[in-house]
Amino acid sequence: MACFAFCQNKKPPIAEAVKNDTIKVIDTEYREDQFYAGITYNLLGAKPSGVSQSGFSSGYHFGFIRDFPINQRRNVAIGVGLGVTSNSYNNTLLISKAGSKLSYNVLNDEDVSYDKNKFTNYAFELPIEFRWRTSTATSYDFWRIYTGLKIGYVVYSSTKFQSGEGDIQLSGVEDINRFQYGLTFSAGYSNISFYIYYGLNKMFKPEAIVSGSQEPVGMNAIKIGLMFYIL
């Protein structure tokens, strides 16, 4: 879970200090525009009965955030950006298809032997953040706390089941919600921040039902990781 960012001085310098024949240029209208990149460990919340996770479920996140300071000191700002993300979830819910109908079955290790079972989605995302930091126009190592909302639109999804008896692979899973959104929080110092995302809506549509029960597949995403910032 990680984010990369760099500071950009978008407006011309308007202040300078002179000492020992050295001119120091200070931009009092600096911004913390950022490129970010992160890696997360992905968890599934509100899982149906019998569903569990196994292995490492990963997420990768890349994008850019534009910074809009809202106070004179410019250490408080609103950030709005655009990014891309890929997320995989290793779990024990088998997604298969017969004709045009999707089915969802909980895998039991006693009955089924398999090597891998996961679903993956790829999305564009729009982060909107309220940002606080201890930065100044001349300081590039500082504490930061960013919190906000991230809205995602899934452009592609797939599933993969591998076993000694055969493989099942699907793409474009219709029951996955295209729009997914959640709360974000990141805090750290210098180039590295701790990051967490908590999904507010379900990953699967209401019509996705676990076979043999009336329990919806549902589930929400929880992502924990690091954000690295490129200064």
Automatic annotation (TrEMBL):
Recorded superkingdom: Bacteria
Pfam families registered for this protein in UniProt: OMP_b-brl_2
Domain Outer membrane protein beta-barrel: 29-204
Stated name of the protein: PorT family protein
Organism: Subsaximicrobium wynnwilliamsii
Lineage: Bacteria, Pseudomonadati, Bacteroidota, Flavobacteriia, Flavobacteriales
